[in-house]
């Protein structure tokens, strides 16, 4: 831990120096390729959710407070200033629980990194304060961001922050957005450190937002906006906290680790561990379902039982009880007791609810969370028969055991070690399939094809304004007609 008499640079400065020096040539080809597919998934998520009711509500309120600016609001024919643009575009990416997450240190990286980077690029283009952002510079800055958030999270024991009630990604994500934007703007090490210091002092995020609040959709947007703000202030010469991660009094790690129950309370070395050799981008996972990641084990367990015992599960009224055993993080995040009335936000965060949806509909996608589907009696009968239990047996966040008991006393059970998309992760081809499936009918086929082409060929893109123009303009809602 930091010592007042240390003369060697601490982990904060070490990390900032690495960010400054990082080049595309330093990054393995498979990591660069994977990052492009992750970016495709991120922009696809934004297009899907930009006109969902809660995203439209947020957009209407924010546009009512903000004047015009240089930064597009994705899915709309509107432009505003950089900070609210980052906030709203992040809210869209996080708007339907289908976006990426990091399997070791839960954070939704695309919702933090991409909106901040595009807003920074549009602002620089408008003000003439920076070079035109190419596809290559976007790719490099995105990877710098992908590497930052999870490292900060691992220093705080990753998913343990969720167990303690923090919205982990929002805590880890402020530094993530700041580092990514600082890289895009070619800031030197001193100013990158200032950017992180300004960003980290704004970090927060309460996981109680998951219980049906609209704010759950926006909280990663706070990190995108605030990290961008930190980087723009630093670029203008505004100083931030030095040694922000390891500072003993009021430092980021020391403060957020208070009461953690861990020994040591935090592991600052995780921030710089294996830089340039260990790539946290490899641990970013893409969701196949429209639900919180901790519920995916419940979905897969029900799907496995449906495949193995189709006759027994043909009549769901015969079910007496459904029990899930799960890890501490999954239990605290998704094992809570769901009660009516429940909004789509709460429904997507509940293991019992999404398991019932899988049993009834055989899928957990956009259709399942229309208002007209949230209050089905047969669904709530299943939710009422479901119990979730925390077990010390499962250290893996995603491991779950499901047992279904029938009225005649029969039991069927299955164990899920890692949910679909976790181990193994979705392939690049499957990510493309997801992008096409979820955006089909929401944008034209030509717009869909062009976005895919530009993202997967980022190194050839001279100005990312061409890509952002395709993200702008009205999109349809997957709930249209509901």
TrEMBL record:
It holds the Pfam family MmgE_PrpD_N. Residues 14-260 form the MmgE/PrpD N-terminal domain. Transmembrane segments: none annotated. Residues 289-459 form the MmgE/PrpD C-terminal domain. InterPro entries: MmgE/PrpD_sf (IPR036148), MmgE/PrpD_sf_1 (IPR042183), MmgE/PrpD_sf_2 (IPR042188), MmgE_PrpD (IPR005656), MmgE_PrpD_C (IPR045337), MmgE_PrpD_N (IPR045336). It comes from the Eukaryota. This is MmgE/PrpD family protein.
